[in-house]
Design a protein that fits this description.
The structure holds two protein chains of two kinds. By secondary structure, chain A is mostly helical. Chain A has a domain of about 210 residues. Chain A is built from 13 helices and four strands. Chain A is globular. By secondary structure, chain B is mainly alpha-helical. In chain B, the strands form two sheets. Chain B has a two-stranded antiparallel ribbon with strand order 1-2. In chain B, helix 5 packs across helix 6. Chain B has one domain: ABC transporter involved in vitamin B12 uptake, BtuC. The chains are: A mainly alpha, B mainly alpha.
Chain lengths: ~300, ~300
């Protein structure tokens, strides 16, 4: 346990000094996607539910924050809060429907529900359709700190990420989280022990979607843009990939996976390999599933256990 | 102009026709998914990509090899089915005993690769495919004009769907298939080569999607995106129908096509979302699906 504490302290220190070395906007993008993947991993890794439409919560958070920041004089922390709550509410509705089905059906239901929202956002007047909401102001945090400065913005994003990460960590290690894991391992047994499995899944779904919304709201502030890309099924696929690649069901997996995927995308975009991005993502998917199911962190943990455990 | 209660019958029957055509494609695709699900218990996320592949292979056969539409209608499903057989044997089977979510992710990866590959080579704008000369023109009915090719789509896909249903429900081969769905171990115990049947089933299920792709090539432009767009709708249809029944998959597909067509006429804004909304209602009222067997 001491070791873990030291590791966390080291990582936080690293994150605090990172913008001195690495471009802050890249770091912010990374943190937003890492938070998104952590939220997703809470469902897939710890409850065993594969949501194939999680982008809808990322995008909904983004649209709400973007719309409020553009049209009202809201401060950014309230804008982000509104986006998070909005995504959580949508998650409550969608989750209630989705937990009625299991396994593969759950994945199909979430994908279809996300597509429903996609078409809604495509036609709705307040999302700007294909153009999205552009030029979203970052505003002043608590009306005091100007977030147009990338360094100020970075530390705001970092604080949000640490909060989200802590919340996932807290949830997983709480008695509630233990029941979630029990459901993942053996659902009929959890039912026989008297747990209302669907309600537990539902609450986990709400937490996960609210956190995904938090990631989306933050992302909208960083890039000053909310667009259909964030609601598209490609984005839902991406977060699955990040989690799978990093190691589902591990605490650090989504972080590592998001880091790798975002870095690959950054390297490829603009270059002549940019066209190959979906092909490469697809190949990573296939390789992960066939040979590498525990992901980077999972395989690393196995290695450590084998040699030092 | 023929109108009843102020409704334009020409426009209505036109939309109904479009709905029936879409319904035919939905039926073929969801039938393929249901057959594969029956034996393998997996959902083939690449089914849409295989539909796209069918359309592209037809286009390539015509433009590179001079193979006409009619030959393509037979050869392309065979070629894509063969590809699917290789895919099942070397990619899907090694993880058959893992959680089925992995096979969903695997086929999703395959779909991404195929779609990316064709976008890279042919761009995303779409390629034209001529309607075969034999089916050009149309028939004038009292209340509408019926293009021959559209009638052909509906008739041929209905014939394929219902022959598949007949083979599965009424023949000995179909009995094997149904037995394999119920209890593969026991059937293997009777000396039937279950892995072979499984592989062939996967190939056939995918060939149905490729057949739909060839049929679709002349009415929609041949584009890399065509598969993923239709597949998500088909997933909703599969949730609505439940995958327990072959006939149910066909009927739900056709029905949802008609529902979509009617919506296009009465309230066009909702035409892209109506099937998903229908799915929501089914989930609320009968979560197992209209034809679902599970409790």
């Amino acid at each position: 346990m001491m070791k873990m504490k030291k590791l966390y302290l080291f990582l936080i220190l690293l994150a605090l000094v990172a913008p001195a070395v690495v471009y802050p906007v890249f770091l912010m993008k990374l943190l937003c996607f890492a938070l998104f993947a952590c939220a997703f991993n809470l469902l897939l890794g710890f409850v065993g539910l594969l949501s194939f439409g999680h982008a809808v919560f990322l995008g909904t958070g983004g649209y709400i924050t973007g719309y409020l920041m553009l049209n009202t004089g809201l401060t950014p922390e309230l804008g982000v809060l509104a986006g998070t709550v909005g995504a959580g509410l949508l998650g409550a509705v969608y989750g209630k429907l989705a937990v009625k089905r299991e396994g593969i059906y759950f994945a199909m239901v979430t994908l279809a529900l996300a597509q429903l929202a996609f078409f809604f956002y495509l036609q709705a007047p307040f999302t700007g359709g294909e153009d999205g909401l552009q030029g979203v102001p970052r505003g002043e945090l608590f009306g005091l700190i100007d977030l147009n400065d990338n360094f100020a913005m970075y530390y705001f994003v970092l604080a949000i990420f640490i909060f989200g990460f802590w919340l996932v960590h807290r949830t997983v290690h709480s008695p509630f989280g233990q029941i979630l894991k029990a459901i993942r391992e053996n659902e009929p047994r959890a039912v026989s022990l008297g747990y209302n499995v669907n309600d537990y899944k539902w609450v986990a779904f709400i937490i996960s979607s609210a956190l995904a919304g938090l990631a989306g709201s933050t992302k909208t502030l960083v890039f000053q843009l909310a667009s259909l890309t964030d609601v598209h099924w490609h984005m839902s696929g991406e977060v699955v990939l990040m989690t799978l690649l990093g190691g589902m069901g591990t605490i650090f997996g989504p972080l590592v996976g998001a880091g790798v995927v975002i870095s690959i995308q950054n390297m490829l975009s603009g270059g002549e390999l940019g066209n190959y991005i979906h092909i490469i993502m697809g190949i990573i998917f296939i390789v992960c599933v066939l040979a590498f199911r525990s992901g980077i962190v999972g395989e690393f943990q196995k290695l450590v256990k084998k040699n030092f455990g | 102009m023929a109108t009843i209660f102020g409704i334009n019958l020409f426009a209505l029957s036109g939309q109904l026709l479009v709905g029936l055509i879409n319904g035919s494609f939905y039926a073929l695709l969801s039938l393929g998914l249901a057959i594969i699900f029956g034996l393998l218990k997996i959902i083939n996320f690449a089914q849409g990509a295989m539909y796209m592949l069918g359309a592209f292979f037809a286009w390539m056969a015509l433009n590179y090899m001079g193979i006409n539409y009619w030959w393509a209608l037979i050869l392309v499903p065979l070629a894509v089915g063969l590809l699917a057989i290789l895919m099942e044997r070397f990619l899907v089977r090694p993880i058959a005993n893992e959680d089925h979510l992995y096979s969903l992710l695997l086929t999703f990866g395959i779909a991404l690769v195929l779609q990316g590959l064709f976008t890279h080579i042919y761009g995303s704008s779409g390629l034209p495919y001529q309607i075969p000369a034999e089916l050009k023109g149309g028939t004038k009915l009292p209340f509408m004009y019926l293009p021959n090719y559209r009638a052909w789509i509906i008739v041929s896909s209905l014939v394929v769907c219902f022959s598949t249903w007949w083979v599965i429900e009424k023949t000995k081969l179909g009995a094997y298939l149904r037995a394999g769905t119920e209890n593969p171990q026991l059937m293997q115990g009777f000396g039937i080569n279950v892995p072979l049947i499984t592989t062939l089933t996967f190939g056939f299920g995918v060939a149905l999607a490729a057949f739909a792709g060839v049929l679709a090539a002349p009415v929609y432009s041949v584009s890399p995106e065509m598969g993923s767009n239709i597949l998500i709708v088909v997933f909703a249809i599969v949730v609505i129908g439940g995958m327990g029944s072959i006939g149910g998959a066909i009927l739900t597909g056709l029905m949802m096509g008609v529902v979509e067509g009617l919506t296009k006429f009465f309230y066009p804004e909702a035409s892209t979302t109506v099937i998903f909304l229908f799915m929501v209602i089914v989930l609320l009222v009968k979560p197992a699906g209209l034809f679902g067997k599970e409790a």
